[in-house]
Amino acid sequence: MRFIYCLLFFLFATNLYAQRANFDKIVYPLDMRAKDFKEVLVQLAWLNNPNNDNLSKSIIIERDKVKLEKQSWMNGVTTSFNLNEGNFSQQANGFFPIYNLNASITLGTILSTPTKVKIAKQNVQIAENKVNQQKLQLRAEVLRRYQTYLSSIEILKVRTQAVEDMRVMQTMVIRKFEQGLATVEEYTQALKSYNETIEGKTAAENDIAIAKISIEEMIGMTLEEIQALR
Asked: Please, what is the Cα angle at 26 between 21 and 31, to 5 degrees?
């Protein structure tokens, strides 16, 4: 039984590993057409956020550092060149060379290069992880704000209908009151209820405006401009 549990856990863990997020679907690449309006909003939010551009450039910087570290072993190599004043100088034991060329290698620099390259590559991965984390957060925030906008529109529809219904009720109560068939309290309550529905509709309109501004803050364009492009 324990073997079966271990096997099931292994299969489950393997399946989880295979389900890692495709970050090109979290935020569609800019050269890929978004499949719907929500994905367009996410793309625009990514494109028009300066911080996202900074994060993307940080990956390029870290990759360049990897290249530099791969070449850093050359810093441990030194050469010297010495040219004799005369073409040659004859002594008892023979001739001196016209020039001297010396080279030396610092082993510490060369031996530390692989470790430095490894660290540089890890920094590239860290930079890429930051970009992916930003994609996750940005997508969630854009979709939250868009959903709030859509919900506000639906709420306005309900409250607009409530205003119409209450207007009919108010008219009926006013007529009954004029005919002496409704009390002052009923007349007053009808007016109060109607005013409350008007206030509710106004609040819903305000919520839509704020939700719209909230989305446009992230995408750098108005929703009307996006609709015109589509």
From this structure: 120
CA dist., res. 48 & res. 33, Å (int): 17
**Is residue 96 classed exposed, middle or buried when 0-12, 13-18 and 19+ CB atoms within 10 A define those classes?**
middle
Q: Measure the CA dihedral 51/54/55/58, to 10°.
A: -160
Q: What is the pLDDT of residues 194-205, one digit of tens each?
A: 999 999 999 999
Reply yes or no on whether the pLDDT at 220 is more than 80: yes
Q: How far apart are CA 5 and CA 130, in angstroms?
A: 36
Give CA–CA dist 2/10, Å, rounded. Answer: 12
The four Cα atoms 121, 30, 130, 49 give a dihedral, to 10 degrees, of 130
What residue has token string 């004799």? 84
Biggest CA pair distance of the chain = 143
Residue 56, class by beta-carbon neighbours within 10 Å (0-12 exposed, 13-18 middle, 19+ buried)?
A: middle
**Amino acid letter, 116:** K
List CB contacts of 142: < 8 A, sequence separation 6 or more: 38, 41, 42, 45, 215, 218, 219
User: Topology of 25-229 in CATH?
Assistant: Outer membrane efflux proteins (OEP) (1.20.1600)
User: Could you tell me the two tokens for 28?
Assistant: 């569609």
